[in-house]
Each structure stands twice: as structure tokens, then as C-alpha cells.
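Hello Y.,

Per our agreement to keep a running log of every chain we model this quarter, I'm adding this entry. I've kept the format consistent with earlier entries: sequence first, then predicted structure.
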Amino acid sequence: MAHGKTSYVCLPCRASYKQPHPGHHDHGRVCPRCAGALMHVGSAFAAPKRRDTAAWRTLSVLLHAGVRFHKSCCGGPGYRPRTLGEVRERMAYARAIGEPFAQALVRRDLP
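Predicted structure for the entry above:
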């Protein structure tokens, strides 16, 4: 039986690749375009178009905050902000109340 695949991204190239899940002895994946390190983002990831720089900038903020796109029990990864405006709004909220950025970024509604 074949193993499932998961998504990896290269932020500088704005490229996404499906590869087998990481194993115990995986030492990192390399981008075939630039030979830089690939970042594991999860199996429920849908990459934005390469020319959509705002979406890739938003994705970069999410990934650097530790947010990933793994499937949950109900099918999808849950809410993720799609615009820089939503990211700014959630980060301002996190600073105001002292909540970790990763937690504020996946919050669907702000109080």
C-alpha cells in the first residue's frame, strides 16, 4: 500500500511540492529549483498562485509563526487568514491581550 503525501513549500521560489511524509531518518528536503530548504506545511495545504505575492507574504507570516495546514478530525485545517489585513488585525489583537501569535492567527473571529 502506498503511503500518502504531504506538502512542502519553498518560500523564496514560491513553489509547493507533494512528497512522502517525513520519516525518522529524514534530514530535510531540498527545493529542486534553488536547492534551498523546503518547509513542511501539512497535507491540507493549497498553494496560492506563484504570481500572487500578497498571498505568499501572508503564508510566510503564518509559517514563521508556526501555523501549519494539517487535517483535523473534521476534514480541514480550520481557519487561516488569507490576506495581510486579516494577519495584521490578528497580530494587533495578540499584542494587545498577550496571546501567542500562532493562536491568534488561527482564531476565526476576534472578540
